[in-house]
Fold this sequence. Notes:
- The chain is mainly α.
- The protein has one domain (2-51).
- 85% of the residues lie in helices and 0% in strands.
Amino acid sequence: xxxxxxxxxxxxxxxxxxxxxxxxxxxxxxxxxxxxxxxxxxxxxxxxxxxxx
Length: 53
């Protein structure tokens, strides 16, 4: 998800086109959710699951 959002933003910058505000907000939200999901997965698989064994 993170790479997709970054690729779209970089592609638009390279092409010289501006993204609409709604699309920029959507991609920023996607980036934030991807980073949050990465942190959550580390917590769940590294901390929570070993404690439940």
